[in-house]
Specification:
The chain is an alpha/beta fold. It contains 25 helices and 34 strands. Helix 16 runs antiparallel to helix 17.
Length: 942
């Protein structure tokens, strides 16, 4: 009871004992003397009898005043709070205890440097101890502290934060100190929203009044823009909550944010790696792999950096590298840049294994090997990737004709033969119908598709939903798939289920039937010297090689082989204006020439010729040349002409590249100069000319590519075997066909390299349970290997994950990958024995989320005020750390803070002193001294 009335109840006990001291002193003083009567004294005593009652009352009053003074001193020291509401303070019986809820941001960006050996997170921990907890420890014993962090979500939705109370107890305070010291900043990306919602739940249910402290770096990417609306709403709810006394925003970034500061506070520059993408996720030992490194510059000034690749396993720089991008790389302010290098992958695969993982690391530095200057986050200057190295690279073939396709002339036969012909090829073919012992398409239902780098489908009529879903998942995760068409293909299924208005796997919508249709003879092979296949260089920028065909036809003269590759039957794609999907997602690689008669396009050509500005005076110097080419175009499409459309396209080409004659510029002007004019009318006309050329030149696409998820899709609109074309046969097949199939495989596996998982993300792995003992459980043991600069990586202890079996497949949920680096996952039986020979294992690289956490720009005061602070009516405010010492304490108002108490104390003291003087025997100045009262000490006992 006393603890609820006094802050220092022990002082009250001592004070109560001291109240009796004046009485004791008075009694002791009276016992020291024995009174003796004599004549003069008798006279004096008789004279005092008349005033006896008054003297006794005055002496008792003096004794009482002295007891009261000691009592008040005890009350003052004990800091009485029981009835302070009566005296102007808030009554302790009416006041709720105060709970200080601290939200400590521990996301990646809190690694931002404050000083050479300090960062925002360490500064925030120091602020909690020095500016909040230490002051709360001086508060009432009812006050408490709760610390929440965004990373608490890793502990599950049922996790409850630890509460600290009675911090005036040194043991309790030491516990808080120890726990805060053990807290570490993560390298993860989390939103503060979930933790703020948790604080709102505490406010809704708590019996205490809440004082909320949010310690963060308050970055613009977190607190501003449309994505922050939910964050603003919960902040406003907290700021207007009845159970919340105050919500303080404490910015721990450097330089210090001033509460009244306007505009955007200064922030640190940061340069980081966004992505490291190898050109393939699976390769053979000794193969050269190209790596594209994307660098971002989150600063207002340009930067120059060097890209250094290293081997994670050894920690040493890769010496055998070839920079395709000159070093250093210039990264413009606020933008990204790419650096490209190649290196041979050399990895020693252990005996008994069929594969291994090359651990590639890339770091940024200044010239001369120096660390980056003015770089806020060092954690995003390094990134990792895993490249799977195999003894052989498996390719899965799904042939609609099954075993028949493996006969001479069949699709499977010629593709498998082509992959074997190429010297040094590591590709190894698996046949779907052999794996499942029946319909090859059922192999697509297996969860083990990830073991393959690419899948080729030949003349497949349709796919069941489960097969389609499995194939789509395979490509989204980085695999490559190629569709070779054939007579059994069902156009309706491909359009409705595989194309799905541009959202599906298949790149383009196709016609209802192939051309020439069934029952009509194949197109006759004619070798007239014209190109029978046209490559679409216009679909690919100069910095990007045309897929599949580009590596084979490196020299322009080699394209003459395309004059001897007739296509006798194919599946036409619907017109371009009926294609759906994202622009640039689907690109044509090779087209058949437009062999329709030019007269069919007379209207399009006539409309274009009418737009030529032959009558405009500003273009009079080019008039004759434009008129001449316009006349030739009209003549080519005139009635009765038998000129094929692709020939008219050549006329458009000539008009675009006509340089005229220097000797007769009036008649034959240089039209290249005309097309280079910056005049919008001329540029629109040039674009129309190029579109007309494409319409006249190209017929239906023969090879189309599409990016789908992290993988690639190729649609080859004819057969892979000899049924519809002569490509696999004779000299052409030896010289061109095999290299094209080989490059097709390279394309399907390229640019799908795993750029790494994000730390903190969950990875699901699925294993076909049919391959293992059904009576035994499976688990995955995962080992993290931490990369160390210039030293071998350090493996950690394995962590086990139990699997769940459903419908014959084992699924494993792998999480808690909290550090960047390489994670090896091994499949084992429940007793720790290997589940298969060779062992089944996976390798994954994890990296920080540079895109989400790398931009250190801070939110402005004005943005926060307009978002929620102004609406909260002053209950939400910025605080510097120095100010927290004033506002953090919830110290109860006690009697010692009541000025009237001290006035009463002084008045009683003055009255006591005056009464004591009055009752004492003091002679006035100049008065004769009276004889001293004779008092004889009590006689000692004999």
């Amino acid at each position: 009871m006393l603890e609820s009335l006094f802050l220092n109840p022990a002082a009250l006990t001592v004070g109560g004992a001291m109240v009796s001291s004046p009485i004791l002193i008075h009694l002791i003083n009276r016992m020291r003397f024995k009174r003796l009567r004599w004549a003069a004294m008798e006279f004096l005593l008789k004279s005092q009898k008349r005033n006896r009652r008054r003297l006794i009352i005055e002496q008792l009053l003096l004794l009482l005043l002295r007891c009261i003074l000691i009592f008040l001193a005890g009350v003052l020291l004990s800091r009485f709070i029981g009835c302070t509401g009566v005296f102007g303070g808030a009554s302790n019986f009416e006041q709720k205890p105060n709970l200080h809820v601290i939200l400590l941001d521990d996301t990646l960006s809190m690694h931002d440097k404050v000083k050479d050996k300090d960062d925002c997170f360490k500064a925030a921990k120091r602020d909690i101890l020095d500016a909040i907890a230490r002051n709360v420890s001086q508060s009432s014993t009812d006050d408490g502290v709760v610390i929440l962090r965004p990373s608490d979500i890793l502990n599950g939705s049922e996790f409850q934060p630890k509460a600290y109370s009675r911090l005036n107890d040194p043991n309790n305070y030491k516990e808080l100190e120890t726990d805060i010291a053990a807290m570490e900043c993560t390298k993860l990306r989390f939103s503060l929203l979930e933790r703020l919602q948790k604080i709102k739940q505490i406010a809704d249910t708590s019996d205490s009044k809440l004082t909320i402290h949010v310690l963060s770096d308050f970055r613009k990417s977190d607190w501003a823009g449309p994505t922050a609306k939910d964050l603003h709403k919960v902040m406003l709810d907290l700021g207007t909550h009845d159970n919340v006394k105050k919500l303080y925003l404490i910015d721990t970034s450097h330089p210090t944010r001033e509460p009244e500061q306007g505009g955007v506070p200064a922030y640190h520059d940061n340069i980081g790696i966004v992505e490291v993408r190898p050109s393939t996720r699976v390769t053979s030992n000794g193969s050269t792999v190209q790596v594209v490194v994307t660098i971002v510059n989150y600063s207002p000034r340009d930067a120059s950096v060097e890209v250094v690749p290293f081997n994670n396993a050894t920690g040493l720089e890769i010496r055998e590298k070839d920079y395709e991008t000159p070093m250093p790389v210039k990264v413009p302010a606020g933008k990204t840049a790419q650096a490209v290098f190649s290196f041979p992958v050399r990895l020693e695969i252990k005996d008994g294994d069929d594969k291994g993982f090359y651990r590639l690391g890339v770091r940024l530095q200044r010239a001369g090997g120096l660390p980056l200057e003015s770089d806020g986050l060092a954690e995003d200057d390094v990134r990792h990737a895993a490249i799977e190295v195999r003894r052989s690279i498996p390719v899965l073939i799904i042939d609609g004709k099954g075993e028949e396709g493996r006969q001479f002339g069949g699709d499977s036969f010629h593709v498998a033969s082509a992959l074997k012909i190429i010297a040094g090829s590591k590709y190894e073919v698996d046949y779907g119908h052999k794996l499942v012992g029946g319909d090859a398409r059922e192999a697509l239902e297996s969860p083990d598709l990830a073991n393959y780098t690419s899948i080729m489908l030949f003349n497949v009529p349709k796919l069941e939903d489960k097969q389609r879903v499995g194939l789509e998942r395979f490509v989204k995760n980085g695999g490559g798939v190629c569709f070779f068409m054939g007579p059994d293909v069902q156009a309706k299924h491909y359009n409705e289920d595989l194309y799905r208005k541009g959202n599906g796997l298949f790149p383009v919508p196709i016609a209802d039937t192939f051309h020439p249709m069934a029952g009509v003879k194949l197109l006759p092979p004619e070798f007239t010297g014209r190109y029978q296949v046209l490559l679409r260089d216009d679909q690919f920028p100069k910095t990007e090689k045309i897929p599949i065909f580009g590596p084979v036809f490196k020299q322009p003269r080699l394209r003459d082989f395309l004059k001897y590759l007739p296509v006798q039957r194919y599946w036409p794609a619907l017109p371009l204006n009926e294609w759906a999907g994202e622009p640039g997602q689907v690109r044509e690689v090779a087209n058949l020439p437009n062999e329709e008669m030019a007269g069919k396009f007379a209207n399009e050509v006539s409309q274009f010729v009418k737009t030529l500005p032959v009558d405009r005076p500003e273009y009079r110097e080019y008039r004759n040349g434009l008129a001449l080419h316009g006349k030739n175009l009209l003549s080519a499409v005139s009635s009765g002409t038998k000129v094929p459309a692709y020939k008219v396209a050549e006329l458009v080409d000539r008009m675009l590249v006509d340089r005229g004659k220097d000797s007769d510029k009036d008649t034959f002007p240089n039209l290249v100069e005309f097309w280079d004019l910056r005049d919008p009318l001329v540029q629109d006309l040039k674009r129309d000319a190029m579109n007309l050329r494409k319409t006249l030149l190209y017929s239906s696409p023969l090879v189309v590519v599409k990016d789908f998820g992290r993988g690639r899709v190729v649609a080859w609109m004819t057969t892979a075997g000899k049924e519809w074309n002569l490509w696999p046969d004779g000299i052409t097949g030896t010289i061109v066909y095999a290299p094209l199939i080989y490059e097709l495989q390279n394309y399907l596996t390229s640019q799908s390299g795993d750029s790494g998982q994000t730390v903190g993300s969950t990875l699901n792995l699925t294993v076909d349970g049919k391959r293992f003992d059904a009576n035994r459980t499976l688990k995955i043991a995962r080992i993290f290997s931490k990369p160390v600069l210039n030293k071998p990586e350090v493996p950690a202890s394995p962590v086990s994950f139990q699997g769940a079996k459903e419908k014959g497949a084992w699924t494993f949920k792998l999480d808690n990958a909290l550090e960047p680096g390489f994670y090896a996952s091994n499949l084992l039986y429940g007793d720790g024995q290997e589940a298969a020979k060779p062992p089944i294992w996976w390798g994954h690289a994890y990296n920080v989320d540079t895109t989400a956490e790398g931009n250190l720009q801070r939110v402005s005061q004005e943005e926060m005020e307009s978002a929620f602070m102004r609406q909260a009516g002053g209950k939400v405010g910025w605080r510097r750390v120095a100010d927290v010492t004033v506002v953090a304490i919830n110290r109860p108002w006690d009697l010692s803070e009541w000025p009237v108490f001290f006035l009463i104390f002084i008045c009683i003291l003055i009255f006591e002193q005056a009464l004591a003087v009055h009752l004492s025997s003091h002679l006035r100045t100049g008065e004769a001294e009276l004889p001293a009262q004779v008092a004889t000490p009590r006689a000692k006992a004999a």
